[in-house]
Amino acid sequence: MADSESRILQLAPGDNVAVAIREIEAGDVVKIHGREIPVPQTLQVGHKFAARRIEAGEAIVKYGTAIGRALVDITAGEHVHAHNVAADDKPKARRDEAVPEQPAEPDDAA
């Protein structure tokens, strides 16, 4: 859902990041679920920022899917990108989707 200012997007309720859908200037304040969050640096369209405080080691969740882990503590409003996130290279399923089963290996005896 976009906030009342239509500058951010946060699709899943459990997401701890939001995405700028319009440029957000350094010092602007955005509202997420009624909370005012100051954004300390300019964010370009498509960039993520913390919707709340994220602790080092915590999963970064975007669109309901864990996309990596915080390398350091990230304050609410801070840019979330390669400088403070370790990408998760493993394939994953969304929490509401079943993990597809791997096909059985063919039997060489046949």
Task: Describe the 3D structure.
- The chain has 110 residues and is an all-beta fold.
- The protein is 0% helix and 29% strand.
- It contains no helices and nine strands.
- Strands 1-2-5-8 form a four-stranded antiparallel sheet, with no helix packed on it.
- A hairpin with a 7-residue loop joins β1 (8-9) and β2.
- It starts with 7 loop residues before the first strand and ends in a 23-residue tail after the last strand.
- Mean pLDDT is 83; it is low at 97-102.
Observed structural traits:
0% helix; single chain; 110 residues; 29% strand; four-stranded antiparallel beta sheet; mainly beta
Summarize this, please?
The chain is mostly beta strands. It contains no helices and 9 strands.
Helix and strand topology:
Blueprint: E1 8-9, E2 17-20, E3 29-32, E4 35-38, E5 48-50, E6 59-62, E7 65-70, E8 79-80, E9 85-87
Antiparallel strand pairs: 1-2, 2-5, 3-4, 5-8, 6-7, 7-9
Helix share of residues? under 10%
Structure class = mainly beta
Distance separating the two termini: 54 Å
- The run of helices and strands is EEEEEEEEE
**Rg on CA atoms, Å:** 17 Å
Count of helical regions: 0
Major sheet: 4 strands, antiparallel
Provide the residue-averaged pLDDT.
Answer: 83
* Sheet with most strands: strand arrangement: 1-2-5-8
Low-pLDDT segments, ≥5 res: 97-102
Number of strands: 9
Shape field = globular
Residues in β-strands, percent: 25-35%
